[in-house]
């Protein structure tokens, strides 16, 4: 174990409330490892880690009033809980569980150390203004594929609200309590391991609102879990190609995954219902743009198209909604 990780007491207190140990977690598992890291760049924790949150009630991701971000992850070493807080120019981190040391080792990558915004050159006034206002935006790199791949599969062809509900229900029922303390009033869970995913009965997928196509895609992915996780160390294009070998995983899903697992700055999301219209409206006053026009508009940002798209989304210049939202399909009621 690295000497920079120091044990902490079994209880922790954060501004905003005392943390609580979930039921069923052995007390000895609550001892924390700690790390302090000083990023050599401006860092906004919310902007950087926000894409990892799957809805306001995501049981694997919480924030607390003191500005801390909590994550529960399944690492190559096992389950782990990570708390990250920015204090002045430093980042203070605590981690619990078998995966604690792995999470602290990965902390700089998670917070954008491998990202290089200096490679990005704005070509539109809107993009330049947003980049100037958001100097703390870094692209996260989790080094974990399945934790981003599975919720991305759940989000295929349905509303985000339905996908968030499915993720929440499945994690609560089949995940395990996050090790160590968690924020008061916020029970956290680590997502299931591949075998547990594979044993979820068909009727439980149905009750969570997940149709057979998406459930089958997840089952094919977890059956090749080690091959999927290898993609985290690949070049993003090769990583996407690896993921797309699984039937049911296309460019939309692979891009949404490697944006998070690999910190891919050019993995622009194609096949999205709303993104082309947002990009078209922001850069060409064309809210009816399709994927072809979106890619043409983003062409000057080749190599950094995902970063450009994120900045456009953060600019707030989105077209007024003139068409109905995607209809909800409650298959659990069938």
UniProtKB/TrEMBL annotation:
InterPro entries of this UniProt entry?
A: Alkylbase_DNA_Glycosylase/TA, DNA_glycosylase
Asked if the keyword Magnesium belongs to this entry, the reply reads: no
> Which keywords does this chain's UniProt record carry?
DNA damage, DNA repair
Q: Does the keyword DNA damage apply?
A: yes
Q: Please tell me the species this chain comes from.
A: Streptomyces atriruber
Identify the SUPFAM superfamilies for this entry: DNA-glycosylase
Cross-referenced Gene3D superfamilies = Hypothetical protein, domain 2
Q: Where is this region: Disordered?
A: 1-29
Record-given protein name: DNA-3-methyladenine glycosylase 2 family protein
